[in-house]
Amino acid sequence: MRILLVEDEPLIALDLESILERLGHEVVGVAETREEAVRLAEDEHPEAALVDIKLRDGFTGVETAHQLTADFGLYCAFVTGNPEQVTACGAAIVAKPYTVAAIDAVLQGMGQAA
What we know:
A 5-stranded parallel sheet has the order 2-1-3-4-5, with helices on both faces. It has one domain: Rossmann fold, CATH 3.40.50. β1, α1 and β2 form a beta-alpha-beta unit. It is α/β, with parallel strands linked by helices.
């Protein structure tokens, strides 16, 4: 699966990218802001996005995920240390600290939804 990462912490982004590649997925880019996420989605045509909740530019990951889904039809899941902030939107959530198994499980669910 082609995946966009929306994560503003470089070490977490690198770790997630490594995990995704080991699981056989292609990371099409890493965005630190909503604007970068939209540009990468437009340019790279990912199938899904893993999105953090708090982004460097002040936008929330929830807002960003809604835009990515509405504008590009992406399946989005949240990887966050603040899972209580996204319970109302019904999206898949992986709580930080995450495990490889948790990331794999959420991606398997996205693949089945596709």
